[in-house]
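Protocol step 4 of 5: obtain the predicted structure for the target chain.
Materials: sequence only (see below). No template structures provided, no constraints applied. The aim of this step is simply to have a reference model before the mutagenesis design in step 5. Sequence pasted as it appears in the construct record:
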Amino acid sequence: MKKQVRVYTCKKHPNWSLETAAPLIAGGLKTICPLCREEFIIANIGEADCRIEVREVEMANSK
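Step 4 output (C-alpha cells):
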C-alpha cells in the first residue's frame, strides 16, 4: 500500500529536507528547518553558554 508523503524543503538551506506522512504542517518553514531555527536563536537570543565537565557517572545497567 502506497502512502502520500509530503516533502518539506528550505529555500535558504537546499540540502535540508523533511519527509513525512503526517498531515500538512501549518505555519512557516522557518519553524521546521533546524538550521534556520538555530540562526534565529543566535541572532535574536545569542549563543548558549557551553562548558565541558568531566564526571564519573554510574550507569544503571553496568555490572
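Step 4 remarks: The beta strands are 6-9, 17-20. The mean pLDDT is 78.
Proceed to step 5.
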